[in-house]
């Protein structure tokens, strides 16, 4: 038998929510709207250059992002989705015996990526009200801690870290430890108290910010995300990146999306209105929900998770169930949300 790393063979695979025929898919926090015409147009124009490799440095996109966020291009690193950039951050910071910390439950990919890198995942349980337990995270720091992910709004709970909490946290984290603020859902966060990652990047030498084009910009299928990181870190992200990881198509569509930000924001605003409506209806029918500031809601279904998930599926709704814990349901178009609300009406609310 060929040799394979046992640590890899022991890993759970990252699973994608499975579609079922005629069902609506609310399992991946996708944007329900198709690409803007201006973005589709640019993508069509790109087709004439598909025989050529992309610009490996993604210079146009990096320059545009640097301008957008008022940072230096040397501080921007792009990748094939922000999950790829998260992987690069881990590979650049942590090896065998090093620790990477994150709250749990959070983005399912973190523990997998850490183990693939041969480092040790350190999950720190969320508080009883599903928020980051930043005191417990500080207490869990050791001399092997290399990187800490703070996902805000947190996937799947939708909870956020406030500015004041982040300041207090960073005051207690050693400067050798890189703190990555994963803001995949920040466009949906309309709480003025919430962290603005860029503000902390500018004031702290050990903070990086992770952004994606998959959610608010609606380009999940094109795979493009980026980090804004201290120059030394960003340089190392380029060193560990797979060459040509971001396609010509993805680069062009990302630039066109940045050009159309206000139009995209209008769509985000519709999703926020829908989130308010869905949460109110769920609460009216007895569900106890914390506020969610992502494009999804988190139903704490505990031991009834499999049962509630089966009922949703029977009624043609695919959500993301985490057995024994809860169900994350993406906010879709008004029609999709109506279908979800009708389906959930067949279940008993979990208090
Ligand atoms: N971070 C978080 C918190 C996420 O939920 C996701 C996607 N589900 C990602 C990063 C990765 O997104 P992408 O690779 O599509 O940019």
Automatic annotation (TrEMBL):
Domain Aminotransferase class I/classII large: residue ranges: 22-344
EC number of this enzyme: 2.6.1.57
Family named by the database record: Belongs to the class-II pyridoxal-phosphate-dependent aminotransferase family.
Protein role: Aminotransferase that catalyzes the conversion of aromatic amino acids and 2-oxoglutarate into corresponding aromatic oxo acids and L-glutamate.
Cofactor(s) required, per the database record: pyridoxal 5'-phosphate
Top enzyme class: transferase
Protein name: Aromatic amino acid aminotransferase
Transmembrane segments: none
Quaternary data: Homodimer.
PROSITE patterns xref list: AA_TRANSFER_CLASS_2 (PS00599)
């Amino acid at each position: 038998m060929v040799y394979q790393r046992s640590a890899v063979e022991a890993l759970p695979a990252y699973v994608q929510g499975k579609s079922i025929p005629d069902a609506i898919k609310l399992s991946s926090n996708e944007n329900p709207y198709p690409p803007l015409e201006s973005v589709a147009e640019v993508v069509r124009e790109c087709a004439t250059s598909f025989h050529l490799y992309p610009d490996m440095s993604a210079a146009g996109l990096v320059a545009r992002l640097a301008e957008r966020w008022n940072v230096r291009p040397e501080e921007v690193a792009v990748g094939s989705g922000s999950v790829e950039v998260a992987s690069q951050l881990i590979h650049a910071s942590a090896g065998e015996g090093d620790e990477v910390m994150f709250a749990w439950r959070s983005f399912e990919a973190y523990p997998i990526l850490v183990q693939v890198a041969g480092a040790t995942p350190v999950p720190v349980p969320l508080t009883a009200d599903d928020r980051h337990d930043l005191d417990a995270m500080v207490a869990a720091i050791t001399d092997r801690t290399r990187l800490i992910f703070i996902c805000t709004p947190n996937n799947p709970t939708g909870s956020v870290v406030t500015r004041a909490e982040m300041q207090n946290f960073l005051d207690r984290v050693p400067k050798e430890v890189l703190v990555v603020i994963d803001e995949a859902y920040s466009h949906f966060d309309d709480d003025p108290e919430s962290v603005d990652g860029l503000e902390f990047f500018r004031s702290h030498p050990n903070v990086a910010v992770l952004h994606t084009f998959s959610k608010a910009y609606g380009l999940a299928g094109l795979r493009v995300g980026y980090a804004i990181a201290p120059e030394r870190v960003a340089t190392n992200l380029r060193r560990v990146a797979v060459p040509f990881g971001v396609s010509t198509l993805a680069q062009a569509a990302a630039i066109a999306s940045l050009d159309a930000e206000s139009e995209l924001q209008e769509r985000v605003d519709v999703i926020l209105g829908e989130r308010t409506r869905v949460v109110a209806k769920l609460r009216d029918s007895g569900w106890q929900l914390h506020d969610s500031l992502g494009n999804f809601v988190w139903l704490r279904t505990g031991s009834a998770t499999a049962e509630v998930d089966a009922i949703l599926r029977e009624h043609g709704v695919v959500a993301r169930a985490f057995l024994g814990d809860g169900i994350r349901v993406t906010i879709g178009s008004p029609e999709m949300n109506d279908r979800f609300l009708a389906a959930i009406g067949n279940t008993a609310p979990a208090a």
